[in-house]
């Protein structure tokens, strides 16, 4: 038998920020046909929440560290796959029937695919068994118009799952489907609410074949191969790209994380030690959403609430849409009961969001004068601004 037939199938689950990848994965992992599946998840931002939100046994979940799969953590993906194979071959873990890689919402799938198909060591032990892309029926059309990553995710898919159909108008769903057909004429499309969308069969796509996709797909994959062989693109053992430039901020420590998502897109996190008053949280979220929803590509949070600190609240914001919050029965990891909020924004300064959060959670700002108070002072000289 050829090595490829013996190889462990790898599925790539992708889709733009907040499209519904983790929700679909949670439903899929309940299918008994997906036991002995390893899930590799990757989040943009170093405060990771996805591992808390994937409802599978934690042994099957491997988290790749801070950075985006298509950029800085590609080397880590290859190492992880090699390590999994090594552990299977030395009987340290049960043989895996499948590996699912959930990418970040901002991932360009081309380099991720190339890591599996184009790496000779990995290709001996694994075979790429398709790309499943989740597209959000509410934000999908505008996201496709504004983000090239989303376009690539759709064009490269073997299967397209449309999520949130019940939240969108029938006309919006029809227009979205027409656009998806243009970008990917052959991938079957299915409504994510249907039970068959959450069956293991979704992943049975057969060996990945770029020839079944629009011509651009072959070119994108070729570009990745070209990038791999260009020494100018390889630094520190990781692959970077010519047009990479992205600021990745966290906890006030600013560091440059070179990757391919423009300078206008930022990821940062807010961590807060004390439980938050429900009213203050509501006001913070409302203000952020109503005034800046379009710039808020994604917000994900686990929040300690003052009305019942033992039961945290899970918040999901996707552009201007805030999904109904979910109250958990208990903390997923009782050793860490801090509020953690991950935000991915476009043209929305981190300082603005932090100040707003501090204002609603009552954190005193002692490092600078209260500008608003000074401007509002009736004795202030008209026109004079600090
Ligand atoms: N009504 C409805 N809500 C959905 C559906 N799919 C996802 N959601 C909600 O959308 C929000 C984001 O879903 P996730 O599954 O976390 O999305 P994701 O693509 O994994 O997000 P990122 O990993 O941050 O890119 C959550 O509040 C989900 O409950 C759906 O089909 N219908």
UniProtKB/TrEMBL annotation:
Keywords: Chaperone, Hydrolase, Nucleotide-binding. The keyword Transport does not apply. It holds the Pfam family cobW. Residues 230-259 are annotated as: Disordered. The lineage of its organism: Bacteria, Pseudomonadati, Pseudomonadota, Alphaproteobacteria, Hyphomicrobiales. CDD domains: CobW-like. Belongs to the SIMIBI class G3E GTPase family. ZNG1 subfamily. Residues 244-259 have a biased composition (Basic and acidic residues). InterPro entries: CobW-likC_sf, CobW-like_C, CobW/HypB/UreG_nucleotide-bd, P-loop_NTPase, Zinc-reg_GTPase_activator. The keyword Ion transport does not apply. It catalyses: GTP + H2O = GDP + phosphate + H(+). Zinc chaperone that directly transfers zinc cofactor to target proteins, thereby activating them. Zinc is transferred from the CXCC motif in the GTPase domain to the zinc binding site in target proteins in a process requiring GTP hydrolysis. It comes from Rhizobium giardinii. Residues 265-361 form the CobW C-terminal domain. This is G3E family GTPase. GO terms for molecular function: hydrolase activity; nucleotide binding. Signal peptide: none annotated.
């Amino acid at each position: 038998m050829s090595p490829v037939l013996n190889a462990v199938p790898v599925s790539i689950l992708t889709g733009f920020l907040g499209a519904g990848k983790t929700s679909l994965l949670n439903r899929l992992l309940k299918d008994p046909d997906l036991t002995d599946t390893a899930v590799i998840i990757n989040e943009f931002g170093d405060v990771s929440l996805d591992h808390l939100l994937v409802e599978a046994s934690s042994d099957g979940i491997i988290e790749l560290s801070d950075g985006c799969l298509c950029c800085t953590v590609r080397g880590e993906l290859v190492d992880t796959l090699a390590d999994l194979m090594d552990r299977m071959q030395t009987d340290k873990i049960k043989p895996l029937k499948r590996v699912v890689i959930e990418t970040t919402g901002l991932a360009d799938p081309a380099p991720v695919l190339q890591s599996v198909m184009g790496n000779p060591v990995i290709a001996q032990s694994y075979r790429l068994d398709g790309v499943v892309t989740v597209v959000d029926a509410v934000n999908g059309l505008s996201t496709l118009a504004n983000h090239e990553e989303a376009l690539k995710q759709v064009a490269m898919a073997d299967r397209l799952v449309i999520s949130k159909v019940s939240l969108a108008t029938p006309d919006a769903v029809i227009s979205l489907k027409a656009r998806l057909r243009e970008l990917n004429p052959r991938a079957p499309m299915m409504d994510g609410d249907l039970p068959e969308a959450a069956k293991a069969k979704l992943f049975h796509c057969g060996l990945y074949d770029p020839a079944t996709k629009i011509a651009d797909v072959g070119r994108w994959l070729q570009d990745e191969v070209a990038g791999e062989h260009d020494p100018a693109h390889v630094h520190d053992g990781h692959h970077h790209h010519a047009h990479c430039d992205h600021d990745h901020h966290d906890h006030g420590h600013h560091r440059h994380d070179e990757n391919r998502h423009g300078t206008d897109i930022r990821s940062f996190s807010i961590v807060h030690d004390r439980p938050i008053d429900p009213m203050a949280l509501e006001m913070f979220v409302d203000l952020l959403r109503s005034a800046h929803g379009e710039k808020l590509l994604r917000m994900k949070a686990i929040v300690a609430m003052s009305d019942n600190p033992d039961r945290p609240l899970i918040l999901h914001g996707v552009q201007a849409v805030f999904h109904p919050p979910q109250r958990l029965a208990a903390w997923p990891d009782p050793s860490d009961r801090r509020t953690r909020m991950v935000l991915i924004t476009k043209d929305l300064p981190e300082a603005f969001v932090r100040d707003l959060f501090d204002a609603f959670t009552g954190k005193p700002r002692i490092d600078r004068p209260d500008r608003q108070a000074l401007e509002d002072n009736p004795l202030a000289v008209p026109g004079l601004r600090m």
